[in-house]
């Protein structure tokens, strides 16, 4: 033990800021929320243990819980593929030697820096408002634009578009991946008279699979956790008609608007389980479509 | 948000220099003493924020031992932040509360009764009886009322005049409203309409329920609703007729405003309509955002004229259980409703003051909007009903549910009957869970 300490103490000392933060600011609250999910806790008075009542209510009685799941899943299944496809397309455009390429890359990355911010969500509200920029353009073309934000049939699309617009970080990762594909493969394919589509599906995509997988997992987790933009655009409540009632937004309102911290903790654990489940699925299926270059077999 | 005034700046500069000796030689004994830092949180609007920060500066100038710091937010965010502060044990010392939600906060023990401070730091001898009884919950005084308040119809006088229609601002009816609003829609350019649409307005529905004999929409024990679906259907049909007559903006426009409390989005302020439904203490704030002169009327009546609105406290200033110095905090609270210099700045913005001497002092110095408020207040005497009992826990959630579900009607996605039943079912579920 003494030997171990003598050898490793300085290392742990340097790690200690991170370790303290991890145990007290991350693990501590996570464990506490697990306990709170089995209690009735109104924030102001001490929690009272009630067993699995919250989980039972959630799955059996709570229509808004199911609505929030519906909204969140619809969002994830639209925004994640949308973002990935768009990011890959832009990355391929930028993967060439043209003048001032660095400037273009910076410009295309810009939305990702701004995208998560409150200011952009507010700007988005203005763009898509009834008399906003988007509808003015739609009108110029000769159509009448919908009420993007107050019509439940359209409201979710504004958020999907906002998500796709923030394609910057997956794009940069794709770009790095594209650079790593050996040019010889393309040259060999060209000699075999492969067209651009064939080259894309036979070389680019398979070679890029690990990067696609990485981006997919990351984007999916991010999409499940979406909160800021939904909060701003839906008046903090999921308006209109719960069409923007994201899971995180519902959780937030249960906790801080309606004093149901215990129930909100239960919701948080369900979200964790959902994200864990889908990440596990992605990993489990990855061996069928993701191949790494150094694999032999 | 901390505002640095000259006094604070000097005290901080002095403290930083550690110059206690120098300070006393300037004849400022305060520097040698412990300064109590008191936080005051409120929800508001730009006009209220300006006045309240000014009041805080005045108070700090008069009380070298107390430093009050103001924190302000919009109405909806105020309560969610308060919830996080309750959880964190760091509520402001003095918090603003409203009559509609106060019972819930009292029952959860988040506030300290003021009873023990009365006669010491708090003087209630000249506060109106109505204000005191409204601030009393479970037998104890929990809040000093900042002003008396009642609902109001706020209208753009220029647009109403231009329509050529007139109405009695006290006794008018929903039929009058329909007539005037339709005329305004006709006499204004396209895109400007007579009145805001109250389909998704829980407060306006409460007035309608009152006019139909329901003092509260909740049952006496707070476990059920007192109203039935028919009343809601009647209310929504009435507004549908207004919409069909062209008195209001299209339903989809109004849907986007459901539940938005901000004064800046109300129709009379944005210019989309000429008539908005608000509170009497918001008249000053609305006028502050407008060029045209605003007028005030009662909420419209049913043909029989039964009262549906009441006079109630606009807001309370309360002592939170997280206060760091209850004596300093209550000193500030007392000054907030009594000090002539402070109340002169506050004026009528939070409602008609409930301290008689303050009312008398304000009378000669009123702005036009404040005069409108007082005039309106005087005119409705005898036309208001009794104050409804405090709301049960869950009332705020039910209000949000109403605002959300009513959008179904504005967007014509569900029949009025189905929507009314859906709302009642959800409301009962909320009361059962609360």
Task: Tell me the layout of helices and strands.
The complex is a heterodimer of chains A (about 300) and B (about 425).
Chain A: H1 2-36, E1 39-40, E2 48-49, H2 53-60, H3 63-94, H4 101-115, H5 118-127, H6 133-140, H7 155-165, H8 168-179, H9 183-191, H10 196-224, H11 228-233, H12 247-256, H13 261-289
Antiparallel strand pairs in A: 1-2
Chain B: H1 6-17, H2 20-25, E1 36-43, H3 46-62, E2 66-73, H4 75-88, E3 94-97, H5 99-107, H6 129-134, E4 136-137, E5 140-141, E6 143-145, E7 148-149, E8 151-156, H7 157-163, H8 174-187, E9 193-195, H9 202-211, H10 229-244, H11 251-255, H12 267-270, E10 273-279, H13 283-288, E11 294-297, E12 312-313, E13 316-319, H14 326-338, H15 340-346, H16 356-362, H17 368-379, H18 395-405, H19 407-410, H20 416-433
Parallel strand pairs in B: 1-2, 1-3, 9-10
Antiparallel strand pairs in B: 3-13, 4-5, 6-13, 7-12, 8-10, 8-11
Rg value of chain A: 24 Å
Spans of chain B with pLDDT under 50 lasting ≥5 residues?
A: 9-32
From the helix content, strand content and strand pairing of chain B, which structural class follows?
A: alpha/beta
Number of strands of chain A: 2
Strand content of chain B: 5-15%
Overall strand count of chain B: 13
Question: How much helix, percentage-wise, in residues of chain B?
Answer: 40-55%
**Helical segment count of chain B:** 20
Distance between the termini of chain A: 44 Å
Largest interface: A-B, 27 and 31 residues
